[in-house]
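Standup notes
- DV: blocked on the single-chain target, sequence here:
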Amino acid sequence: MKVTVVGAGAVGATTADNIARKELCTELVLLDIKEGLAEGKAQDMMQTAALLGFDTRITGCTNDYAATAGSSVVVITSGIPRKPGMTREDLIGTNAGIVKTVAENILKHSPNAILIVISNPMDTMTYLALTATGLPKNRIIGMGGTLDSSRFKYQLSQHLGCSPADLNAIVVGGHGDTTMIPLIAHATWNSIPVTTLLSAEQQKQVVADTMVGGATLTKLIGTSAWYAPGAAGAALVESILRDEKKLFTCCVSLDGEYGQKDICLGVPVTIGKNGWEKIIDLKLSSDEQALFSKSAEAVRSMNEVLKTI
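- DV (later): unblocked, structure below
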């Protein structure tokens, strides 16, 4: 089993590190456009193998897509990261050209690969990967909602004083500070609705803090976060390669689901060996559906920018 991670920056390297530690594949390729970066990080990770006890073989390469041939899953993290004050949408002009080129080159050597898109603005980059490649829609997955849902659980755990692992909570809609929708009314702590445990003010705070979770970290760190995005990317790879059928929120192509068509947005899906395999209908309330439709309008507007690039 072979996996490729494109982009050896902080997110890409962290994704690769998580994949290697869990021994999800026998061969892992790290590719970057910067000379020596992927090779160096691959060596650094391989030098942890004896200490951590994994046998995944990690190699790095500079812009050599032939080295990625035969990959079952490819994670695309390449592109410029956010800086303080930037939105994910500010990255569209630069990252669109990068993602399109990467997807096309990957498929020349791995025509059956499942693509996981992490590059921002993630919803638009996922839509671009789908329309530019013509792949079956189940083989294009945007990671954003998986990360946002994990951040949602973190915020809830801080207010409840509980383990994030005991929480079921998801974020749908776009992967943006104003387009994501943390579904507080659906969140539970081991089947107990969190709305019965938190005040209205606490619920409002949790939702607000979740929505700016990425921007908060960008302000604190000076660039985009990488530990949680890398872990989210690796979790999707694991569910695919081990055919776990786990439920994640992912950005996928909608064809009438949740009232939307010709768009990629975050909804709950099962992830298995075929990519995303089934969309789960949450039966949103009228207010939640209105927020979802508003999120779709914003993402669709961003997708229109692709026509001008």
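- Follow-up: The chain is about 40% helix and 20% strand.
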